[in-house]
Amino acid sequence: MKRIFIQLFQFYLKTSMKRPYLLTVAFFLLISVSFSQDVIRLQSCKDDLIGKQVDSLKSLYSKDGFSLLKEASITMESEYEMPVIVPLTQGSWYQFVFIGDYSSRLYEVRMFDWNERQVIFQQKRWGDVDGNIISYSYIPKFSEFHMMKPVQVNKQKKKNLCGYVMLFKKANTDEGVSVANAQ
After folding, report:
1. Pair 74, 47: CB distance under 8 Å
2. Which distant-in-sequence residues (6+ apart) come within 8 Å of 34 by Cβ?
3. Residue 21's pLDDT is what?
4. pLDDT-flagged residues of the chain (< 70)
5. Which residues pair with 152 in a beta bridge?
6. How far is CA 168 from the centre of its chain?
7. Which is the most buried residue in 65, 78, 175, 183, by most CB within 10 A?
8. According to DSSP H, which parts of 16-127 are helical?
9. What pLDDT, on the 0 to 100 scale, is given for residue 178?
10. Which run of H or E residues covers position 68?
């Protein structure tokens, strides 16, 4: 932002005598840049408790014939969704997992298809048996991108909450009955 201001000021000095209206344009441009919103950037985090849960779930799902496609640790803010976009193939069996910070009170995941229709909604509370873990199966009807939006609510920590997302895919879906019953 500082560089933009310097460039605008240099440009103004060169052209101010020739074109006085440029001062107004430069002023409004500077104001719009200074009031622009900050971008939420994906940052990883480390939490030993979540790390142990991740290792256990990877082992559990690999024994059930799932392979890990994607995983990421993410730094989150309380009450803010963190969108995760994934390409899914029609008819494949997927298992999604979100693990939230153990001190949060509410965990929620919504998943939307390409047409922005909500296809999954799950919510857990801190007192639940597996409270900080949301896991669900999904078999898409079309090959398209889907968006998973995990969120957690924490009253003590508003920022720097650790979260973890994983996407598994069933290695072979020849078992027609069990795949149909997964949803």
Report:
1. no
2. 1
3. 57
4. 1-42, 129, 173-183
5. 107
6. 16
7. 78
8. 21-34, 48-63
9. 44
10. strand 66-76
